[in-house]
């Protein structure tokens, strides 16, 4: 008989740059490793108004087919809906169009969704297709997701009111108040959505985790214990490599700065600060006397106001303190809304990173060996910050005032501590060590490279079974 056609994988990221970027990298890695042996349809749900998203999609290799489902109607939803609910509803309301896509493709041998995409399992089950989760966050968060139903049953108060820390297998103890945002209000729909997804994790055929053993040894060991279901494949760190043209001029600016001298300040695609915090940060950066490159967004009362657009609508520069741009000229560069972050972190002039601790940003920092100042804002970023400070020990933390604002003196102190202090030296040497280990994990024979090969093998086996069943 003729050999079966190569496996065809449908990859479906839910809205958000932090989901799109690593899944695009996963797709690229799979096709790169296994050339003609895997074909991929990359199916997105979201908005063409997001320029950053278009750049990622247009840089997918030609062997990957990319298509966008028609936008579902969301106009009936309340305006204060949390992002996790909005993401989940975007997907669940797109199921009819996803069903059309899957039924029009010959021989789909697996679907891959991300952490909030489990409703696509309905379609996979209808067509009898194996279903996988790509988990774009930490092993610690995955471990929490695996235990959330138990916690939900055993705890009656809000998690932030728990007297004792939450202990997850292999993880550093976590204060209830550090758990991810959407579980902080158990009456909110966002919590119900998270619980709904985590219940469905149990029926996944496997989970691809964007982390690696040396970064999270304890939690990964616990998640990959023999017999654990579903199988977890630690395949990270998969980060955006290469880049597009830089329209901001910041890479050229970096070319002119001394090696390791620039602090990069960026709060991800979604992160926004209050006006008060924006001002304190600006003045603190100025006081520190250090060089900096800052991706500035317009201030907002909510900390994730640019999550779906990756950009803010007003001119963010207009919110900086008067005279700030002139006074920091030559030493500081500001870029509105979006910079080519992975290229910035890869640049030899970059020596530190003030980050909201989104997991992709964190992994990029590890891959390029840049130590961090943690500035968590939303989602699971507080948990990630704990991981970086107490687990990997590659970051330092500023202290906020009682009102939650980090004042200018503290900004200046922590920036100097990272860029020229002893504390900075310690975290810098550890992140360089981890950078080497990340390289090793991804190179031939390394743990993540082996795990990714196992994933590819599994996808091919599914495909053969699927074809045999179809013949029978
Ligand atoms: N990013 C970027 N330029 C920016 C801000 C973010 O290229 O100005 C990229 C960043 O490199 C990372 C992703 O967007 O790959 C953000 O993902 P992360 O998980 O760090 O945070 P999120 O945006 O999901 O909160």
UniProtKB/TrEMBL annotation:
Gene3D superfamilies from the UniProt entry: Glycogen Phosphorylase B (3.40.50.2000)
Entries under PROSITE patterns matching the protein: UDPGT
Broad EC category: transferase
One term of GO molecular function: UDP-glycosyltransferase activity
InterPro entries per UniProt: UDP_glucos_trans (IPR002213), UDP_glycos_trans_CS (IPR035595)
One Pfam match: UDPGT
Keyword tags: Glycosyltransferase, Transferase
Protein EC: 2.4.1.-
Keyword Plastid: no
Source organism superkingdom: Eukaryota
Family: Belongs to the UDP-glycosyltransferase family.
Name assigned to this protein: Glycosyltransferase
Organism classification: Eukaryota, Viridiplantae, Streptophyta, Embryophyta, Tracheophyta
Gene: UGT72B1
């Amino acid at each position: 008989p003729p050999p079966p056609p190569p496996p065809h994988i449908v990859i479906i990221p839910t809205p958000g740059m932090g989901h799109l970027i690593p899944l695009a990298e996963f797709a690229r890695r799979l096709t790169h490793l296994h050339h003609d042996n895997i074909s991929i349809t990359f199916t997105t749900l979201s908005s063409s108004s997001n320029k950053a998203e278009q750049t990622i999609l247009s840089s997918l290799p030609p062997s990957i087919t990319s298509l966008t489902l028609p936008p579902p109607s969301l106009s009936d939803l309340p305006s204060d809906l949390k992002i996790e609910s909005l993401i989940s509803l975007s997907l669940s309301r797109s199921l009819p169009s996803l069903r059309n896509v899957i039924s029009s493709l010959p021989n789909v041998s697996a679907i891959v969704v991300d952490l909030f995409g489990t409703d696509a399992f309905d379609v996979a089950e209808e067509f009898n297709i194996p279903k996988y989760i790509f988990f774009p966050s930490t092993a610690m968060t995955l471990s929490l997701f695996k235990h959330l139903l138990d916690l939900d049953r055993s705890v009656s108060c809000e998690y932030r009111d728990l007297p004792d820390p939450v202990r997850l297998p292999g993880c550093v103890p976590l204060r209830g108040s550090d758990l991810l945002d959407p579980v902080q209000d158990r009456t909110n729909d966002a919590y119900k959505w998270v619980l709904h997804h985590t219940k469905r994790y149990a029926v996944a055929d496997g989970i691809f985790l964007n982390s690696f053993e040396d970064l999270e040894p304890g939690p990964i060991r616990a998640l990959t214990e023999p017999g654990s279901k579903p199988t977890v494949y630690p395949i990270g760190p998969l980060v955006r490599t290469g880049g597009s043209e830089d329209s901001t001029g910041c890479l050229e600016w970096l070319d002119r700065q001394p090696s390791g001298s620039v602090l990069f300040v960026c709060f991800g695609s979604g992160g926004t600060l209050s006006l008060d915090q924006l001002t304190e940060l600006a003045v603190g950066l100025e006081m520190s006397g250090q060089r900096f490159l800052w991706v500035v967004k317009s201030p907002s009362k909510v900390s994730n106001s640019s999550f779906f657009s990756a950009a803010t609508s007003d001119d963010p520069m207009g919110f900086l303190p008067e005279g700030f741009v002139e006074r920091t000229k030559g030493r500081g560069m500001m870029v509105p809304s979006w910079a080519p972050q992975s290229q910035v972190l890869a640049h030899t002039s970059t020596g530190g990173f003030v980050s909201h601790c989104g997991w992709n940003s964190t992994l990029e920092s590890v891959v390029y060996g840049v130590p961090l100042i943690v500035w968590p804002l939303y989602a699971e970023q507080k948990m990630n910050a704990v991981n970086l400070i107490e687990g990997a020990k590659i970051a330092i933390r500023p202290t906020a005032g009682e009102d939650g604002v980090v004042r200018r003196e503290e900004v200046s102190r922590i920036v100097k501590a990272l860029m020229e202090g002893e504390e900075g030296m310690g975290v810098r040497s550890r992140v360089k060590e981890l950078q080497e280990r990340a390289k090793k994990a991804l190179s031939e024979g390394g743990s993540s490279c082996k795990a990714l090969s196992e994933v590819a093998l599994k996808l091919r086996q599914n495909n053969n079974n699927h074809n045999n069943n179809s013949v029978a």
